[in-house]
């Protein structure tokens, strides 16, 4: 494995080998080799069109890969089947209450009917949304909808949450609340892999940074190392605010 996010000895990780994604004759991902621990906080950075969202979708299986392989691995146990939850940049709410949105996700996830109500209420309480449980989800504020989307994904107790710019469309206060929740989930052992254009947010949340450009992984580093001493030319130019051609 050419690019390991960090030491994976004795850890469970997601392994990508020579992963490429091509759609309509356009290469969106090119020969991606990565080993991403599923119990840490990894932030994917890069300019628009770098392939960040495509990488998240390929990991989850939302889009097919054109070449290569994606699989769960453990240094101790071999192949592992991980559960992932996906949170889109813009929350997609069903035409039902906030509570019913979470219950529906639990039903799709195979949770027994007798357990769904309690787990859904607990998930809403965890993001301080108990007060909107019976309100129509589509009438909630943008910040409330995004917190609901994270709660809905987390209610299924995945090994790792994949989050595509989860605070891009909410106000600063809502974004800060969501960041605190994600840090709390991380402290409880939930893995996080997320994209963001907010470098300050990346500094606050990331343990590890994956930097991408034009569908390729240009650099993988611990967060402090990347922000202090980026090793790739594109990484240095990106942090300097330069246009990447």
Outline the structure in words.
With 245 residues, this protein is of the alpha/beta class. The protein has a domain at 12-90 and 158-239: P-loop containing nucleotide triphosphate hydrolases (Rossmann fold). Helices cover 34% and strands 27% of the residues. It is built from eight helices and ten strands. Strand 4 and strand 5 (78-80) form a beta hairpin. Helix 2 crosses helix 3, helix 2 (98-108) runs parallel beside helix 4 (142-154) and helix 3 (113-126) packs across helix 4. It is globular, with a radius of gyration of 18 Å. Mean pLDDT is 90; it is low at 6-10.
Q: Span between N and C termini?
A: 28 Å
Q: What CATH architecture of the domain at 12-90 and 158-239 do you see?
A: 3-Layer(aba) Sandwich
Report the strand count: 10
SSE-based structural type:
alpha/beta
Shape: globular
**What is the CATH class of the domain at 12-90 and 158-239?**
Alpha Beta
Unreliable stretches covering 5 or more consecutive residues? 6-10
**Residue-averaged pLDDT:** 90
- Helical residue percent? 25-40%
Outline the biggest β-sheet. 6 strands, mixed
Count helical runs: 8
Q: Name the assembly state.
A: single chain
Which fold name corresponds to the CATH topology of the domain at 12-90 and 158-239? Rossmann fold
Round the Cα radius of gyration to an integer and report it: 18 Å
Percent range for β-strand residues: 25-35%
